[in-house]
Amino acid sequence: MKNFLALFFILSGNLYAKSCNDVQVRIIFEGKPAIAKETLCSKKTPDNMLFYVSKSCDENKCEILKRKKSELEIKDYYSNIGSPGFKICNELGGIPQIFEFSQGPNLWQSTERCLFGAKDFVEISLLTREWINFLKKK
Amino acid sequence: MSNFSDAMKALFYFLVFTLIAFSQVYADVCDDAVLEFQSNTSEMNNKHMMAYDDIKSYSQEFSKFKSQISGESCAKSALDQTADDRNSIKEKRIDTISKYLKLGIKEEGGKDISLEYYYLTGKSKKYKYDFEDLFNNSSEKLPALQRKYEDIVVPPKKESIVVKPAASNGKCSNTIIENETVNLQNVRNQDSVGWCYAYAAADLLSFKLKKKISAVSLYNSGQEIENDIRDRKSSNGGDIEDSIENYITKKGGLCLEEDLPSNDFKFCINQRYNDFLNNFLSVVRDRRLDQELSANQCFGSDLQAAFPGINVSLIRNHMNRFGTKKLVEFLYDQQCRKLSFPGLKLNPVTVSSTRYQADILMKTLDEQISKGEVAGIGYDYNKLNGEEGVGGHGSLVVGRRTNPESGACEYLVRNSWGKDCEQHEGVGLSCHKSCTVNGCRYSGHFWVSESRLKKSILGVTYLP
Lengths: 138, 464
Prior knowledge:
heterodimer, A: two-stranded parallel sheet, B: alpha+beta, Cathepsin B, Chain A, two-stranded antiparallel sheet, 43% helix
């Protein structure tokens, strides 16, 4: 029985791990483009939309994904200056960043993420989707 | 006596074996017929939609099947084996007719499809159905079909004229326009600056010239960049046509994105473009340039990211002579000294709501799309989204389709807010998604209905 449980937990761990992959990330270091490694985890919604989050946010473990939704006031939302998703990210206390990553040779993708602290990040499109109905736009 | 009983036993066994063999032959006839029927109709079973001609072909196969099992004792069993498949075809036919009726298509193969619909759904028994026996013994409750979105195959009329959906009056042909420089995968992100017009202008030029043009180089808000980026309220906005004409007239060429990056750079510290420029100007104003460069590695890195290969002495010289006055424009010029397309002559055309009705603007847009060209649009984003307040914005239209559900004409708008989707999806408004086996991702484009766009459009700009 013990062996069965151990096998079960090992297999479960492996199943969860499949939603996270190491990817290459393009950064600028000392003025030159450099490649770094990061772990990117997939978050899939019931309507088959796919978003990427940090490993610390996998399975909604991080604070921003656990945060209870309430009205979010966005000043100057209607001014249409800049991406509204960036404004939502700022208002939630995050820092928006354009982000380039690759999951295979020559398969670079660009997206936008919202960083919370040193480890947590979620794609801005996921944040927008989750918070858009709570926005109080001024 | 024993010989007689042995003979009787032998006869008995012979009769039993003969009966078994005989029944096996009959069973093989029915099994073979079923297999042949299923094999001949497998292609139709895989389709999602059933046109009249599909049903006709299916019925012909069914007639052939029936003639093969006619008179056989296994015929009923063979018919039962095909019942599920036939029920499935019937369900698909009902689904197809339902979609046709929603699009205003009333007949097919010279027959009134609404009568067929009532017959197949059991609402009318008086209709003389051409394929009456095809769906017999399908009285069991049908399993729910997995309905998938699929483009409608519009059936031709007898005269082979293609029937267009009534809602769009037949003028809304499906197309998505893209090339190596402007496509569904590489939407831009204007980040935190109010230069949507410049990003739309850059995409318009990039598509035409097949080279990625620097968006920020086309800044043309009528004031110094330093004043424009101070805060959100200080941003002036601009015009797509003016930004192109101004630049080409003044410079005699264009600047590439690789020489002056707009959103392809990655900051070392997590700043937005707006914040980076403000911070940079503040450092220069306070005469802390050298101090920051030596103490803050990220500052130097970000400077190189925004102005690749910049010589810092140029910044010092400008600072000494002019302070921060027009410093960013100066650096933009330095980055763009190696102009591309020298001597370029382009005459962008704008049709504006200040002079023309919305119908003319939409007609202009349609003409460009029909020619396989993209067009820039100025529009009230808030009005388009059904929200309060005025929100002037500029984007590119890169496609058009007839919505298969509503029959309405829709336009594909390429935004400049990254891969995000801000739309409240609903009637006439939906996010464009790119889907693979792993899932779907927003592409930063959205579909908007003709009626919504017409209410909010302010101008159309194109490059003849």
